[in-house]
Amino acid sequence: MEDQSILSALFLGLIEGLTEFIPVSSTAHVLLAGHFLGFKSPGNTFAVLIQLGAILAILSVYFRKLFLIAIGLPSDPASRRFVLSILVAFLPAAVIGALAHDFIKTVLFETPALMCVTLILGGFVLLWVDRLHLTPRYKNALTYPMPLAFKIGLCQCVAMIPGVSRSGATIVGSLLLGADKRSAAEFSFFLAMPTMVGAFALDLYKNRDALSFDDTAIIAIGFIAAFVSALVVVRALLDFVSKRGYAPFAWWRIAIGSIGLVALALGY
Which residues cross the membrane (predicted)? Predict the structure, then answer.
């Protein structure tokens, strides 16, 4: 392993963890940063596989709550309903992701200009939603009705396009469907778990023959960096969005997308 690759993997892992659960598109940030750093991984697996580090951060933060839900499944209807709502929300992405995997990885992941444009457009969508005077009807992510969960899952599918943002799509969908800001972010956290574990498993299976020992070591570095940085974000995000909303993330998206387009136009 070259020192440059190690440093790039560490840097990209930090970016993944810091951006995975905020509506700015971690995939676009990692892929764009990798593009300008000249960082390559077989089949673009790095950007997908290190997401599991961020998922472990969610598990550690919500371990007690998830543990209580798990042991309550045999006897508690509320626990069963919550788990089923997450699975129902996950189903659309599972089907579309499996069917469109090769197109997403070989075409969409290889188009930096598309990511920049979707970052900018998504920023304007966030600004628009953040300024709406919505009256929330759902304030507890653990009790979202099944139809609401399924509709949020459909919204998540838009994030198959890198730059849209998985958390951004689910949060915006949740807000427009009647959720408040805090529970929308929290439901996005929970939905991330099966979605990203599924993406990890599928990508690892598809690229199992292309990965070498050096690739595995580089991914491990990014994985650990993503876990540590995601811990910081998950602990702070809910309070932040409850007080400040999503406008700061919108302006960040617009700035990064614009900088990226300028850099691409200059030949970088």
Answer: 43-62, 82-100, 112-129, 141-164, 184-205, 217-238, 250-267
